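Okay, can you check this protein?
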Amino acid sequence: MSTLITDSNAVLTFTGQWARQEMADYIAPAMSCEEIDALYGLLYAMGEPATADMWMTAHARGDQAGERHYRATDAQYAVPVDPMDLLQCDSCQ
């Protein structure tokens, strides 16, 4: 398999079309983990890490606990912390 890209306009057209958030939000949740990994790798290799991350995030929102790309929401782990406690100094109390 050749890895030589001879038409950079085709690459720009491809990455431009796949950089649309609404497309990622609609398609990515329906993709398998293997499919999204392949698309992520392709977009990243084409110099589009932000687009790759966008697709991965859109896919992860559709994953359930136990699936490869599942990301728990931050709210599940939010613990109130008094920043003064972290300083650990007597004059801060």
Observations:
- The chain has a mean pLDDT of 79.
- The first helix runs from residue 8 to 18.
